[in-house]
Amino acid sequence: MNPRSVRRLHPALRDDIGDLTTRRPLPGPDLEQLDPFLFLNHHGPQTYPPGNRGLPFGPHPHRGFETVTFILEGGLAHRDSGGHDSVIGAGGVQWMTAGSGLVHAELSPASFLRAGGRLEILQLWVNLPARLKMTPPRYVGLQQDEIPRLHAGGVTAAVIAGGWSGQQGPIAPPTDVQMAVLTFTPGSQAAFPVAPGRTVFLYVVRGALSVGGSAAPAFTLVELHDDGDAVALRAERDAVVLFGHAPPLHEPVVAHGPFVMNTREEIVQAVRDYQAGKFGTVPMP
Ligand code: FE
């Protein structure tokens, strides 16, 4: 295997939302997107006190892409206009295909508001191709024990989507996205085959990595050259990494807030449809 080399490191920029610690490595000043990966918010890590107000993400719409939410610490209560309602705890994942459109609320569970606690959540936006932008909305919430884990030499892969060393992830996305959360013990290393032409998404959540000889600290998105058929990672200390890959869409991206489409006209239509109530409403308890 011939490992890909680092093109550029993109440190996450701090952009807190009220009392919610937030860092965003994508998009950034030097990177609009990593086609088809559009956006990553890293909330926390932080500790909320008892009697807190929790996450600020009340009902809001999406159309044209997918939101993938990794709950590292704390919990996340999801409710949407498609009738999905679940509370996912630490180690779990929520994979929502917004497609033609829905409204959802992403809030802290009642127990967290009462007792407080640790919170760390990642949310990744994955674009959909034109042919799937109006696909029916879908939501899958998985708890930690529903996600298979592969272990090899100090590296653990929580396999979420796609095939990893023969292990199939429990999520079957509408496009060929492979996604895993990797955990490294100090000094451990792994190489993952990635076919040339695919876009790699690699974000260092915690710890520090060496990628093809380059050092990548925590809170850094690592952009790779398409110059090999593998991604080789080594951890200098305990590390957590979000790692995935997918074929690029090579389509125009027109984004407006929570809508990501191919043309201006489609954005205007999305706003109209949402305002006309076509996305439905979130049933609040
Ligand atoms: Fe959302």
Draw up the topology in text.
Layout lengths: L5 E6 L1 E2 L7 E5 L10 E12 L8 E6 L2 E9 L1 E6 L4 E5 L3 E5 L4 E6 L2 H6 L1 E11 L10 E5 L6 E4 L2 E7 L1 E2 L2 E2 L9 E7 L4 E5 L5 E8 L1 E4 L2 E4 L2 E5 L5 E6 L3 E8 L7 E3 L2 E3 L2 H12 L10
Antiparallel strand pairs: 1-22, 2-3, 3-4, 4-11, 5-10, 6-9, 6-11, 7-8, 7-10, 9-12, 13-14, 14-17, 15-16, 17-24, 18-23, 19-22, 19-24, 20-21, 20-23, 25-26
Bound molecules: fe (iii) ion.
What would your notes on this structure say?
The chain is mainly beta and 285 residues long. It has a single domain, classed as Jelly Rolls (Sandwich). It has 2 helices and 26 strands. The strands form 6 sheets. Strands 1-22-19-24-17-14-13 form a 7-stranded antiparallel sheet, with no helix packed on it. A 7-stranded antiparallel sheet has the order 2-3-4-11-6-9-12. A hairpin with a 4-residue loop joins strand 7 and strand 8. It is globular. The mean pLDDT is 97. Fe (iii) ion (FE) binds next to strand 5 and strand 10.
